[in-house]
Each structure stands twice: as structure tokens, then as C-alpha cells.
Design a protein that fits this description.
Layout (H helix, E strand, L loop, with lengths): L6 H15 L3 H5 L8 H11 L3 E5 L7 H14 L2 E6 L2 H15 L4 E4 L4 E2 L5 E5 H10 L7 E6 L12 H9 L5 E6 L5 H12 L2 E5 L7 E7 L2 E4 L1 E5 L6 E6 L1 H12 L7 E2 L2 E2 L2 H13 L5 H10 L5 E4 L3 H13 L7 H14 L5 H6 L2 H9 L2 E4 L5 H12 L5 E4 L13 E4 L3 E3 L4 E3 L2 H8 L11 E6 L6 H9 L13 H20 L3 H30 L7 H35 L5 E5 L6 E7 L8 E3 L2 E3 L6 E4 L4 E3 L13 E2 L11 H15 L18 H12 L8 H28 L2 H15 L3 E2 L2 E2 L1 H6 L7 H9 L8 H12 L17 H22 L18 H8 L4 H8 L3 H21 L7 H12 L2 H4 L5
Parallel strand pairs: 1-7, 1-8, 2-5, 2-6, 3-5, 6-7, 9-21, 15-17, 15-18, 16-17, 18-21
Antiparallel strand pairs: 3-4, 9-10, 11-12, 13-14, 19-20, 22-23, 22-28, 23-26, 24-25, 26-27, 29-30
Helix pairs in contact: 3-4, 6-7, 17-18, 19-25, 20-24, 21-23, 28-29, 28-30, 28-32, 28-33, 30-31, 32-33
Length: about 950
Amino acid sequence: MTEDLTPAQAYAAALARNAEAATALAPFREMYEFGLDPFQIEACRALEAGKGVLVAAPTGSGKTIVGEFAVHLALSQGRKCFYTTPIKALSNQKYADLVRRYGNDKVGLLTGDNSVNGDAPIVVMTTEVLRNMLYAGSQALSGLGYVVMDEVHYLSDRFRGAVWEEVIIHLPESVTLVSLSATVSNAEEFGDWLDTVRGDTEVIVSESRPVPLWQHVLAGRRMYDLFEEETDHGGRGASRREVNPDLQRLARTENTRTYNPRDRRRGKMVREADRERERRQRSRIWTPGRPEVIERLDAEGLLPAITFIFSRAGCEAAVQQCLYAGLRLNDDEGRRRVREIVEARTAAIPTEDLHVLGYYEWLEALERGIAAHHAGMLPTFKEVVEDLFVKGLVKAVFATETLALGINMPARTVILEKLVKWNGEQHADITPGEYTQLTGRAGRRGIDVEGHAVVLWQRGLDPDHLAGLAGTRTYPLRSSFKPSYNMAVNLVEGFGRHRSRELLETSFAQFQADRSVVGISRQVQKNEEGLEGYREGMTCHLGDFEEYARLRRDLKDRETELARQGAAQRRAQAAGSLEKLKPGDVIHVPTGKFAGLALVLDPGIPAGRTNNHRGFEHHDGPRPLVLTAERQVKRLASIDFPVPVEALERMRIPKSFNPRSPQSRRDLASALRSKAGHINPERHHKQRSAAADDREIARLRTEIRAHPCHGCDEREDHARWAERYHRLQRDTQQLERRIEGRTNTIARTFDRIVALLTELDYLRGNEVTENGKRLARLYGELDLLASECLRDRVWEGLTPAELAACVSALVFEARQSDDAVAPKVPAGNAKAALGEMVRIWGRLDALEEEFKINQAEGVGQREPDLGFAWAAYQWASGKSLDEVLREAEMPAGDFVRWCKQVIDVLGQIAAAAPKENSTVAKNARKAVDALLRGVVAYSSVG
């Protein structure tokens, strides 16, 4: 095409090529075998121009290329780059990638578990490590030019999200920030905030997936496409997506069918032909079993596949089902390679622990190309599964949703068994964001032409709902930022109280709250204009109609209040009379469907008790069971007794009476009519209204009649305008309260935390006390409790194993609370110390309530959980893994994870504990050594 260019055009093109060759991007592009996508080039050029970038793109689209370009720029400029990730496994993976490219000497790793070459120019770390470095003023920050925040959408995480905002706010201005996010619907809003706190930030959003994704539903033997595509290029460039009508027809047929052999039609049993047709139809539609699904995908060339099962036990069960079904996805050469890799990667695990960890069963499944992947597995085992999957030696993985969080483990196909998962509180539908994150694993760039997402048919599945999940590719990024005690003392020490408050008001949380206030403020302005118009409409030439309307409103409010009090008093009297009823009392039901004569069979539940009746809870007093004169046995409610009731007569209820027997009911009802049918109930005389004798009402009526506006001919017209004015004024006041509640919310929480810390002598104005400096070294959910335990010398004199048991209560949280069984704890000093920790927490909890610090809002100290104390004590005491896991009834992966968190906090305590007249620091270090052995010590990095 160059011969078609004019000389001027050819010259301009040559200049552009030369300019491109002179950039840092040109040699960087040559490092990759594939060409960069437009969004990657745009982000890299913005970085080279000195701007920060926010890149929001789908999973698997290659966002990390932009982060790697920041690494390239840092090395070319002789500066440092920190590459942060949300989880240690992702840090390990990125560390290995960068070492392969730049060598061991230029790349370091800092996580809670590992410290490798921390002074290198490129350091991969978890976000918490960088946050701690910023607060500590670490020397490692000198020369820092770039920080890459991978998976920055983690700032929505309600437990850890605040760390991302802390880092973004506190990084030096000279540092260029590279934020990599999943596709979020409010990327521009997040970019605006970054622009505010970090300076010039380019927002690059890419919606397109590098590998097209096809959506399916597998029902019985048939794979249905979710969408009926009308395309321009044979299914590549869909112009319109309609839900497959065959799938909608199937859903309507299956979800409305209620086959029951006892159904009657025109008084006869359903004909045999109908039942046979029903059976034939049903035989075509079922939810395929797990081995059947894998075999089907294997036959169609759709492996490797990840099946998401929202249960650890379900993942393990799926592997066993595939083994029992005789499924084999690897040939002899594949099996040999698997065994070779697994034996090399697990060589450091003590032989005596392999049996305990289920190693041989796990290896057998791996050799067949099948594996589970969940947080309960040993980290080493998970890493091996990831490695074998990427190498194509494991072809079917059954995983919980944790696999979707950043790990580079793409598949050709992703399978979702259900669209419902347990969220920790209840079974809830997965969100569009979760669906996008899970199915984003389907389609391997450079390997697959297309990816596939398969949802298994379940009774009740709604194709339109599924299409909504699949069609909504984005979800909003919501800040979860909340100040903590540790954050408060670190901020005050670094910036003073006033500047700290200003810094917190720059958080994304406050930015979002302030933006939401803008719309409310506009509504307030409109309301105020409306109020002005209503005020003109109620203007009266005789006097102040606003004052007159207020008197009328006060009268109405007083009458309503007295009527409410009267009704409540009558209900209380009626409930009191019901409580006095006894079996055998004959009463007259005053109103309702069952009004008339009745015999009390059972007086009901005492007032204040709860009675479950047809799914509703009633707290409104007794609900007597009665037999009416019309032979009906019914449970009545307080609504049937608007006035008090008294026993008219007494009757003996035969012991043989059966309320379910029509004959019994007929006989007793007949006896009831004979005994009391002639009695006329006493009429309940209506009481004199309280309003008739109320002095306040008399005063208001006198003032209303004496007011000049009372004689106005247009009084009622003015009154209608006044009522509109009042309603609009009330609405406006509610909006103003909402604005007040959302403005400076973060700063107000900070003020309460500072007030509590001042009360406990952690802060004195802008001064951080010795107690405060100790708290500044303690990071974690129970930072203040740990600091108080050090101050009160609760852990003095404990052995290292006993200290490990106590510290475990600061980090452990049971997956499911079991209040029925008290956790086992070590006896002696450890038990006493744990008891003292709970007492200190009780004191802090009362203080938080006094200072209006609300745990429900994510601020404050939860109760320490003693559920891991015995396991930590046993392991630190040198017990075998078999013995510890058997007693703890805990998966190995969970055990290792909790041990590592205990080790992390023990390290903080060793640094924060007094150096003189204290054994805590020394024993904390000994406890770390005691815990860091066997499977806990093993790491694949280094």
C-alpha cells in the first residue's frame, strides 16, 4: 500500500514509525509473540506519557500486560516498581512470571509467608504488605516510581477493601499508579476519584473478550444454546441476542408440569396414555451427573473444563464420583508426567504426613486428569493442580468460586451446576458480576477459538433470568472503606488529627457518598421552589394562615394520639381478659367470621410468646382454641376480640372429646347450645371519648375559633394549600437529614474512634502515646484487643504453645458458628488468659457502644473466637499432623491458612511487645518457630 501514498503521506508515516521506535513501548512489544490489543497500547502510551492509568477489562483479556509495561518502564528508568496482588497465591504466580523474564536478581517477593530479595528493583507483594510499609515509613519506598495494583476491584471487599484505599491515598505523589480492574460499570466514577487523589489518570475501558464466549444450557442429552444469534459472520459478530425459544419452551413445559398419579380428571384417574406420554417426555430432560457431563464435553472436544460447585464437600464428592465411574482423561504418557511433577513438587512434605493429607487418593485422581480446587486444600496441592491444569495434564477441575479470584487458570469450558450459592447467611442467587467472573475463565487466549459457559439444567431454571446474568457484563465498584483503630493512630502520628480527617474525606467511600448527595440536593432545591409557591397559595388577607394551619394540625395530631391510646388500652384490656380464660369457659365472640357462642378448648399461648401459624409469627397475646355453636373448631386471634370478654358459663369437656371427629364436635356443640343458648351476652357500652375531657384539645379548639383566619371565606382553599405545604416541607426535611447523614460520614466515624482512643490513653490531642505507638504496629481485625492484652500483661508467663493458642483467638473465625458446643481450650494459664481476653473484649464492646462505634457498619472489635486455640496449642507443642487434624476436624488447607495467620500476628506482637521486663516478645518468636514446621513451613516459592 505504500506505493499509493503521496510523498507527504509517506514522509509522515516514516516520521511516525521513527517516533514509535524511539519509545519504550517499541522494545517492550517485541518481547511478546503476539500483537498488543488497542486498549493495551492506549494504556501503555498513557503510562509512558507520565499519566496514571485505570484499566477495566474482562477476565483473561490481558490487563496484566499494562502492569508488566510499568515494570519495564521502571527498569529502563532506574527506578523501582512494586507489583501488588490481593492474594498470596497470585503474588507467587506473578513472582514466578517476572523471574522467568528478568531473572532472580531483579525480582523480589514479600508476602506474609515469604521474603525473597526484598531490596530488588521489582518486588511483588500483597497489598497489606505495601500498606504496612507506608505506615512504617519503610526505606524500601525510596526510589519507588510505579505501583501496580492488580485486581483493584478488591476494594469492594467488606473485610479487606479498606487496604486498597489506604495505599492509594498514602502513596507519595511521585509514584505513578497502575490500577487493573475487572470490568465495572462505574469505571469512570472510580477514575474521577483517582484523578482527584492521584492526579492525571487515564481511564481505559475494554468490553470485548479476546476469545468469544458461547453460552449453553445442558438438559438431558441435549446442549441448548442460551441465545439464538442473528449474526453477520456465522456467529462471530452478533448483532442481536434473543433467548433461544426452544429453551424457553422447555422451561415452560418442565416448570409448569405437576405430574401426580393421584390427580383426578372428571372424577377418574389420569388415563394411562397421559402418564406414558408424561414419562417419555420426562425421560428426555434431567440434570446430567458429573461424570456424564465430563464425558460429554470430552467427546465434543470441550475440555479442559472447570466445574464450579459452591461447596468444598461437593468438589471432593465430584472427584470421587468420576473415579467410581472409571473416568480416565490421560493416556499412559500423561499419567507418567503427572506422577513425575507431583513427586517433585511434594518432595519437601514429610512422608508421615502424606497419608494424613490424602495424598495417594489425590495423586490417583490427578493421574486420571481430574482434581478438586478449594480453600480447604493444602496450598501445595492447590498449586500443583493449577500447574497441571495449565500444562493440560489435568482436564477436569471441580472448584469453589475462590478459583475465579485472579488465579491464571483459564479453561476451554466453564460449567455452573447451580445459579444459587450460600453467601454465609443464606442461599442467594449469584449476581451478574459473579457470573461474569466465573464464566470469564472460559476461553484460553492463543489456544481456543472460542470459550463455552455451560449451565446445567435444574428444575425451576428461568432462561430469561440466566440471559440477564449472561448479558449483564458489569457490576458497580462500591467502596467498603472504614477507619480502624490502627489506621487512626498511624494517621495521627503521621499527619496530626486535622490533616488525618481531611485525608479520610478524600477516600473513595466519601467521594461516592458526596456524589449521591448531589442528586438529593437538587431535589431539595426543587422542593424549596415548590414550598415558595404553596406559601403564596395559602396566603390569607385576614392573618397568618401558616400559624392557623399549625393549630389545626396540632388538633388533628392530638385527636389521633388520643384515639391511638384508646385503641391500645382496649386491646390491652381484651388481651388481659383472654389470659383469664380456662378450658370449659363459655364465651361470646363479639366480632369476626366466628362471632357468637363458643366453648374454650384451650386458652392458647401466654402473652409475649411466639406462635408459628401458617408461616407467620404472632406476638399479640393468647389465641384461644374454641368450638363454635356451629360445630367448628377454630384458633382465634386478638383481632376477634376488640373488647374484653368474660365467661358466661362453665362446661365440662369430655375426656373422650376429639376435635377431629365430626360426631364429637356435633355432640359437644349441641351440649353448648343447650347449656348457654338462652344467655344473652352483656352489651359492651362504648366508653366516653378521652378527647371530650382533654384540656389540650379544648385549648386548641378555642384558639382556632379565635384566630382571624377562621372567618375567612376561602379558608378551606387556603387549608388545602397549607396541607400540601406541610407534606412537602416534611419530605424536604427528610431529604436534608439524608444529606447530613451522608456528608462527612467517614470523618465522623474517625472522630468517634479518636475519642475512644483518647479515653484509653492511646492519643492525647495530636500526640500518640506509648500505648498508641504499640497499637500502630498491630494490624488486624482485633488490633485494639491485642494492644489491650499487651498493656494488661495478659500473656506474661505463658509458654510459646500457650501464647499461640491465645493469639489464635485474635485471627480465627469459624466458617459456621456452633454455639451449642464450647470449644476445647488448653487448661491452666492458657485457659485463664483466654478468659481474660474475653473479659477485656466485653469492656471494649461496652466502650464502643458508649462512643457509638457500630460493628454492624464494619467498625469495631468482634468477639474473639476460641475455636482454633486447641489446634494451635497442639501443633505448637509438637503433636503430629494426624493427631491435630483429627481432633480439630478441619481440612488441611484451613489448618495451614489459620496457622500462617497466627504466625503473622505473632510476628506483629513480637515487634510491639515491651522489650524490658516482659517474656512476650521472646515467646512470640519461639511460638513462630514452633508453628512453622511440616506442612505449615513448606512453600513452593524460592
